[in-house]
TrEMBL record:
Residue stretches making up the AAA domain: 62-248
Organism field: Mitsuokella jalaludinii
UniProt domain Predicted DNA-binding protein ribbon-helix-helix: residue ranges: 12-44
Protein name: Sporulation initiation inhibitor protein soj
Amino acid sequence: MADLINRKVINTTLSKDNAEKLRTLSKRKGIPQTRVLDRAVDTLYQKEEASMEGAAKHKGIAICIANNKGGVGKTTSTAAFADLLSKRGKHVLVIDADPQGNLSGRFGYSADSPEQAIPNYLGSLIEDRFRGTEHQPLGYFINHLDEFPRIDIIYSDIRLDGVYTLLTTDSIASATMFRKLLAEIRSLDKYDYILIDARPAVNNEVSSIFIGSDYVIIPVEASWDSIVGANTIYQFMAKSRELNPALKLLGVFFTKVQDRTTSFHTLLPMVKGNWDKDLFQTKIPRNQDVVNAENEGYPVTYRKPACKASKAYVKLLDEMVERIDNDEKQND
């Protein structure tokens, strides 16, 4: 009886042509239709598995968090995104590309004195790849975090500023620097996401990051200077698209929001008008817990997961991932 029921289900879900072929195969082989389908599915599955053996298992989606204006929550957001993605089972590489090294501080590294400086930071990686002849393995520069098992980081400190200055003498090397680094990182087939915290600037190294990235996301504070900085970064992206036509704006979002302030409600319509569909619905509220967590040297979502800002970051990440998924579906 079960077999008859299954055949009725099968014949109602297949096209008439394939249902007839199934009946023919069943008679030729002398086996039930369900077994024919079972074998066919198994054969297709084996072929699919074989075709995927050589395919990359981790996409290595590179997202740069940027604004020409400092103090808008760029580093706070990068750290929060990394922590939340790792909690969702994703493997994340964080690259601190800002010589201030604030993101590194969220994940356990601070070079307050020369004695504390580590040799395997981003500046030494850049010099190794673009000035040396014998190269260290990439893994030497990637630091693993015991407290964050799915997050790795390439640290930064003030020495990076000098390395960037040296690279400005070679415009070609400077332009392609991060594209080559990110390609090498993706070849590891280890990371689902690569998050890059760029310094607040429009210069060669920020352009190089854009040239190597898939997306840019712009945090905006409810202030005129921050909005001007966001517009500057967006216009700057256009130049980088000459060498990376696939670069896209993932979106713009408000940080440090106080809903009751006049400045926020004055600037909100202007931002909505400028960014239209690029503006995320979720806004990150101003929250003392963010400051407290950062003073302790942690992402706010890790140290204060129940606070308002952390809950907002969860919703914002949902929006981000949905946009990425939709973009990938369109490109398939």
